[in-house]
Design goal:
about 375 residues, alpha/beta, Rossmann fold, 7-stranded parallel β-sheet, 4-stranded mixed β-sheet, globular
Length: about 375
């Protein structure tokens, strides 16, 4: 039986690759709803091709354009936050892919969870900022969260059938990003174009910059804590240039399990959509004899201060991770816009964290307030 899939963030990198997976297996999956923040042209093109029941655009001012582009089809148009929530909770959508980048994805993700959906979660920020709330609501409404991040998909697969009390530590692998071979001095002059030239992965610009600073691993550490119930101090990061081993789990008896595959996001997307079944793929197996060396190394926190700041935010707890994430979003945007240098990103995050007073995360309103305050502080810092 074909599963109905809703894609929140269909015009982004993960959204487009999800459509690749669906198109490759039409007997297993079909599109029920598509949603995007502002890219009305791409959303309309996707809706014309895949003919979902619903196409939702977050920016209400673009609704009329979307309606005009979809005139003559049976695709219904919704807009605003309410439109995204409607897409996330549509009855026919058995699987909801959460791929809206940044904190903008929190509301729709929560709506999917409260709708009791299977959530194929691709964006890190909702769990980083409000992990306690999301996991509690998932338990309350019977929602299933299957991670799409390659690292968390790997951990999910390695942990299947094992007791959490038997886990000694989780090990996340990091490629080191596009700038891994530059000296600390050379990092000061890095351009956005250079930072976006990732050696192994094809990702959106914000995630690619996070990969270069290793903030993506910091966010993943916090995310893994919430997803798998393992304390942050037992979650480690190692450098792995080849991006073949996506993560590892070490158990108390000394055994370590690892998940290996090609660095192709369509593989963890397909796994999340098809779970518990494994869907035959057309994107090629891993030819282990052709891989060559697999190398691993420790992370130099002097080179990657954003990872250190993420661990610090996790240790402080409460709203500190939300503030850190907000500051990072502002700093990365400023870097991509040419307003600050690459090495200014951790400077801004650290300044925001130093000024933030963490509060318990008792509601989304508390998270939103911390997020807004951190953004305001970050914007006021010297460029």
């Amino acid at each position: 039986m074909s599963k109905g899939v809703t894609i929140l963030g269909s015009t982004g990198s993960i959204g487009r690759q999800t459509l690749d997976v669906i198109e490759a297996a039409p007997e297993r999956f079909h599109v029920v709803a598509l949603a995007a923040l502002r890219n009305v042209e791409a959303l309309a093109t996707q809706a014309q091709r895949f003919r979902p029941q619903l196409a939702a655009i977050c920016d209400p001012s673009l609704a009329s354009q979307l309606e005009a582009r979809l005139a003559g089809t049976e695709v219904r148009v919704a807009a605003g936050e309410a439109g995204l929530r409607e897409a996330a909770t549509l009855a026919e959508g058995q699987v909801v892919v959460g791929a809206i980048s940044g904190m903008a994805g929190l509301g729709p993700v929560l709506a999917a969870i409260q709708g009791g959906k299977r959530l194929a979660l691709a964006n890190k920020e909702p769990l980083v900022a409000a992990g306690g709330i999301l996991m509690s609501e998932a338990a309350r409404y019977g929602a299933e969260i299957i991670p799409v991040d390659s690292e968390h998909s790997a951990l999910f697969q390695c942990l299947l059938g094992h007791r959490r009390e038997d886990v000694r530590r989780l090990i996340l692998t990091a490629s080191g990003g596009a700038l891994r071979d530059l000296s600390l001095e050379e990092l000061k002059g890095v351009t956005p174009e250079r930072a976006l030239a990732h050696p192994t992965w094809q990702m959106g610009p914000k995630v690619t910059v996070d990969s270069a600073t290793l903030m993506n691993k910091g966010l993943e550490v916090i995310e893994a804590h919430w997803l798998f119930g393992v304390p942050v101090e037992r979650i480690e990061v190692v450098l792995h240039r080849e991006s073949i081993v996506h993560s590892l789990v070490e158990f108390v008896d000394g055994a370590t399990l690892a998940q290996l595959s090609q660095p192709d996001m369509r593989l963890p997307i397909q796994y999340a959509l098809g779970f518990p079944e494994r869907v035959p793929t057309r994107w090629g197996p891993l030819e282990i004899t052709e891989v060559g060396e697999l190398t691993f190394g420790s992370v130099d926190l002097a080179r990657y201060p954003c990872l250190r700041l993420a661990y610090e935010a996790a240790r402080r707890g409460g709203t500190a991770p939300a503030a850190m994430n907000a500051a990072n979003e502002v700093a990365v945007s400023a870097f991509l816009g040419g307003e600050i240098g690459f090495t200014d990103i951790p400077r801004i995050i650290e300044a925001v964290l130093d000024s933030h007073r963490p509060a318990p995360v008792e509601s989304l309103a508390v998270v939103a307030a911390a997020d807004a305050e951190a953004r305001q502080t970050a914007h006021k810092l010297p460029r």
